[in-house]
């Protein structure tokens, strides 16, 4: 008997697909058969960041996307399934700093390894559209798009606080400043004001929020996006500082509690803190706070800290002077970086007031809605903080009113006085896109003393990244060291000028790559609008939930901004989104420090790509996390080997007897029914949901049944034909998950290529009336009812009846003298 040898099978099919460019798809719609244009389907997995080699998360993502791409192709759709690399970024830059070698070297080596492994996994990619964001032919258009946003005023510069390492003299990304110290040298991180580039994403906050309703995305992802945008309705109220003559606007969702404001708090990052008080104590508090992660600072559990600044502001509703504090529980991310503190009606303000012995004044008392559910169940009057609705107290002329009525009245009154207005506030901030790093897309702007910021003309793009000697930052962007490159002439006045030395956040590169795939080789424009309209939007986007906020938000912003510029004809890039769960090992996230990292390469080399891919999809529902087990891999491998051996055996039998070739399938048997059941089940699992695991389970059942009936069936030409059909069907159905084995088995059984065949359709006649209830009698008396296949033969009916335990008990060793079989109805044993 021959062995299943994926190491032989897999490279052979990979060569066919590469040589014939099987998965390439043209931008010119194929008129199709019978002149009907096939539907387009853009299946896209998030582009990988090439660092080292692919990990298990990649294998899962691409196994999911590929199954879907294959399924849709064979259902007659034109499928676009491209691949590229998010090639700029920090790990390559850090590597360059350590080794002194150009980051392009390690990046390109990693891309080559990703490409090699993706090919060895047999992923059906249209390689003619491959791109990498660090190639000048790609980032030329990233720069071009930046300039279009700049022209529109959507890219601008202003001062902003950054995390800064005083030793390395460099800006740090959040992930480089864990626990408030520099990841590289351990120095405590400080906050520093630097002029930075921003995208005006806040202009799109309403649309980014409202358009979520139109998307078929997982609800939890939409919720995360909604919370990130964080739209709230309330009022902006101005508190005045008499001593400095400064107005401090605050945003509050509770203007009805204004009479309860007993102090005022600035975030440590608020630009006026040091103006109000620059004592060493305040300075060090501000520095410390700036280095801490906002999640920790905002936490309710944390003990409240702060310092009184020795100044006051005036509460506009009652003229009270209230003290100003700086405290790290207030974040600049939200509102204006300043709050009015109402300790009676806010948890955190309440804790702070208790810690600092500040007055707590109740202004809303439970009640006032006698029939409401709160009236009886609400907290006892006076239990503070109280954050519900009720009746106004201690609030001057608003006393006795319901707080929701007073809400509007107070805002109207403030507006008349010029001390406030109705306002909507967003948690979303503008997108800070400039990075003081080398390995990124250069920002195509020239600074001219006479003309200011001057865009590099389109025909001079790309502004290529110059080669430098030292990648380590020294108080400025590494690019500043490339003097010949920095010093240039102003495109506008031809006077001396210098280039922008910051590079772009890599999220900019990945905010439009899905557009470029549609027309990846276009040298004249980022895309041809007609081609783009032919493919976009992405019909199915697949990726990790860790990208649920930033990447998806930025890509949506880009798409909307480009729609407003008339450059694209749609508002949303990703119609449907699927987020995959994480693969763990021994119940824990894989990480180098835990020593539990496994590489797809090891499994592909040992078992073949088909096994690794199938196991990844069989391990559980793909949107959920799953724990990798080597035993499970072995089980899937044995199933694939069984399918291959079945096909091999049938093919051998075919070869022995020419009569079998062309034999009809004959009358339906349980195996034929099982094959049609499997077709129906796998189709529904792939079409309606991402139930790859239950689809694979159905194919396994089919193969098990084929083995159960094999010896009986191999005896006849019709039986062998039925086995051949079952094996071919299993090969056809398993193809989206195990493309090499699926192709091999299908070709052995039919002599044709499975991907050129339409997806199989179940025969409804073979799906219905599958079984009937067989009546079993002993000496004419009903003893049992057992399920039997609708087409069971007389022998089969008899066998099933004999198998009944109740009948066995009745027979009790007696001799059967006669057996009466009524086909499709009953079996009667006459016993003596
Ligand atoms: Zn440092
Ligand atoms: Zn100039």
Write up this protein:
Helix content is 38%, strand content 19%. By secondary structure, the chain is an alpha+beta fold. Strand 8 and strand 9 form a beta hairpin. Helix 2 crosses helix 20 (609-618), helix 21 (630-656) packs antiparallel against helix 24 and helix 22 runs parallel beside helix 24. The longest helix is centred in the last third of the chain and has 27 residues, at 630-656. The structure holds zinc ion (ZN) (2 copies). Residues 165, 167-168, 182, 184-185, 187 line the site of one zinc ion.
Please tally the helical runs, counting DSSP H or I stretches of 4 or more residues.
Answer: 28
Taking all Cα atoms into account, the compactness measure Rg is 35 Å
Question: How is the main sheet built?
Answer: 4 strands, parallel
Low-confidence stretches: 370-379
Mean pLDDT: 90
Secondary structure elements and their pairing?
Layout: H1 6-19, E1 40-45, H2 56-74, E2 78-80, E3 84-85, H3 90-99, H4 103-120, E4 131-132, H5 136-151, E5 155-165, E6 170-172, E7 190-199, H6 205-210, H7 219-229, E8 232-241, E9 246-252, E10 263-266, H8 273-276, H9 280-290, H10 294-298, E11 306-314, E12 321-327, E13 338-341, H11 347-356, E14 364-365, H12 374-377, E15 391-392, H13 403-417, E16 420-425, E17 431-432, E18 434-435, E19 445-448, E20 452-455, H14 483-486, E21 487-489, E22 496-499, E23 503-504, H15 506-509, H16 513-516, H17 529-535, E24 540-544, H18 550-564, E25 577-580, E26 583-585, E27 588-589, H19 600-607, H20 609-618, E28 626-628, H21 630-656, H22 670-688, H23 692-713, H24 717-734, H25 739-750, H26 764-767, E29 771-778, E30 781-789, H27 794-802, H28 805-811, E31 816-822, E32 826-831
Parallel strand pairs: 1-2, 1-24, 3-4, 10-12, 24-25, 26-28, 29-32
Antiparallel strand pairs: 5-6, 5-7, 7-17, 8-9, 8-16, 10-13, 11-12, 14-15, 18-23, 19-20, 19-22, 21-22, 26-27, 29-30, 31-32
Helix pairs in contact: 1-25, 2-20, 3-4, 19-20, 20-21, 21-23, 21-24, 21-25, 22-23, 22-24, 23-24, 24-25
Bound molecules: zinc ion (2 copies).
Residues 165, 167-168, 182, 184-185, 187 line the site of one zinc ion.
């Amino acid at each position: 008997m021959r062995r299943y040898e994926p190491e032989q099978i897999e490279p052979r099919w990979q060569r066919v697909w590469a040589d014939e460019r099987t998965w390439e798809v043209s931008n010119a719609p194929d008129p199709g058969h019978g002149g009907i244009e096939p539907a387009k389907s853009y299946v896209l997995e998030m582009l990988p960041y090439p660092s080292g080699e692919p990990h298990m998360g990649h294998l899962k993502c691409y196994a999911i996307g590929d199954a879907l791409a294959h399924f849709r192709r064979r259902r007659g759709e034109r499928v676009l399934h491209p691949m590229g690399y998010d090639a700029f970024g920090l790990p390559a830059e850090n590597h360059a700093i350590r080794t002194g070698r150009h980051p392009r070297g390690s990046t390109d080596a990693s891309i080559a390894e990703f490409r090699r492994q993706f090919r060895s996994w047999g992923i059906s990619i249209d390689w003619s559209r491959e791109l990498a964001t660090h190639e000048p032919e790609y980032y030329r258009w990233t720069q071009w798009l930046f300039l279009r946003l700049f022209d529109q005023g959507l890219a601008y510069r202003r001062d902003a606080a950054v995390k800064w390492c005083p030793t390395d003299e460099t800006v740090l990304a959040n992930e480089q400043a864990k626990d408030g110290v520099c990841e590289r040298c351990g120095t405590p991180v400080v906050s520093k004001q630097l002029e930075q580039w921003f995208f005006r994403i806040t202009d799109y906050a309403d649309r980014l929020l409202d358009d979520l309703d139109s998307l078929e995305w997982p609800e939890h992802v939409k919720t995360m996006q909604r919370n990130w945008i964080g739209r709230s309705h309330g009022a902006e109220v101005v508190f005045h500082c008499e001593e400095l003559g400064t107005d401090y606007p605050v945003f509050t969702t509770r203007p009805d509690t204004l009479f309860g404001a007993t102090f005022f708090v600035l975030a440590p990052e608020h630009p006026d803190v040091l103006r109000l008080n620059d004592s060493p104590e305040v300075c060090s508090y501000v520095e410390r706070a700036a280095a801490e992660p906002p999640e920790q600072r905002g936490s309710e559990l944390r003990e409240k800290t702060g310092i009184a600044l020795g100044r006051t502001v005036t509460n506009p509703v009652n003229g009270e002077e209230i003290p100003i504090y700086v405290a790290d529980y207030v974040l600049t991310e939200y509102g204006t970086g300043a709050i009015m503190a109402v300790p009676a009606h806010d948890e955190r303000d309440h804790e702070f007031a208790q810690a600092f012995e500040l007055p707590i004044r109740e202004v809303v008392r439970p009640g006032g809605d006698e029939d409401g559910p709160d009236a009886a169940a609400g907290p006892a009057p006076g239990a503070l903080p109280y954050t519900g609705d009720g009746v106004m107290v201690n609030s001057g002329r608003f006393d006795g009113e319901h707080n929701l009525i007073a809400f509007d009245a107070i805002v109207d009154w403030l507006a008349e006085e010029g001390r406030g207005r109705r306002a909507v506030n967003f948690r979303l901030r503008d997108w800070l896109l400039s990075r003081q790093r080398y390995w990124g897309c250069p920002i195509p702007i020239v600074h001219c003393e006479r003309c200011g910021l001057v865009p590099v003309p389109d025909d001079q793009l790309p502004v290529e990244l110059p080669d430098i000697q030292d990648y380590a930052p020294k108080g400025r962007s590494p690019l500043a060291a490339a003097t010949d490159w920095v010093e240039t002439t102003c495109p506008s006045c031809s006077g001396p000028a210098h280039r922008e030395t910051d590079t772009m956040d890599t999220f900019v590169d990945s905010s439009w790559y899905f557009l470029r795939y549609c027309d990846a080789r276009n040298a004249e424009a980022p895309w041809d609008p007609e081609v783009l309209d032919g493919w976009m939007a992405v019909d199915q986007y697949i990726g990790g939930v860790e990208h649920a906020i930033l990447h998806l938000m930025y890509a949506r912003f880009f798409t909307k901004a480009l729609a407003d510029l008339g450059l694209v004809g749609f508002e949303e890039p990703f119609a449907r989104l699927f987020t995959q769960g994480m693969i763990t090992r021994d119940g824990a996230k894989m990480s180098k420090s835990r020593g539990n990292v496994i590489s797809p390469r090891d499994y592909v080399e040992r078992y073949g790509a088909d096994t690794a891919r199938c196991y990844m999809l069989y391990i559980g529902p793909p949107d959920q996390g799953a724990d990798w087990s080597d035993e499970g891999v072995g089980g899937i491998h044995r199933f694939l080997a069984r399918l291959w051996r079945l096909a091999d055996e049938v093919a051998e039998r075919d070869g022995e007897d020419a009569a079998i070739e062309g034999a009809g399938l004959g009358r339906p048997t349980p195996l034929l029914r099982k094959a049609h059941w499997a077709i129906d089940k796998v189709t529904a699992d792939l079409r309606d949901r991402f139930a790859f695991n239950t689809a694979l389970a159905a194919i396994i059942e089919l193969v098990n049944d084929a083995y159960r009936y094999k010896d009986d069936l191999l005896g006849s030409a019709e039986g062998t034909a039925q086995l051949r059909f079952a094996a071919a069907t299993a090969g056809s159905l398993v193809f989206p998950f195990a493309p090499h084995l699926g192709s091999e088995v299908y070709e052995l059984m039919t002599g044709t290529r499975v991907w050129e065949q339409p997806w199989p359709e179940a025969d409804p006649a073979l799906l219905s009336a599958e079984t009937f209830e067989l009546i079993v009698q002993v000496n004419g008396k009903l003893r049992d009812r057992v399920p039997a296949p609708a087409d069971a033969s007389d022998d089969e009916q008899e066998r099933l009846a004999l198998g009944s335990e109740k009948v066995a008990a009745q027979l009790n060793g007696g001799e059967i003298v006669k057996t009466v079989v009524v086909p499709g109805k009953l079996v009667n044993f006459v016993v003596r």
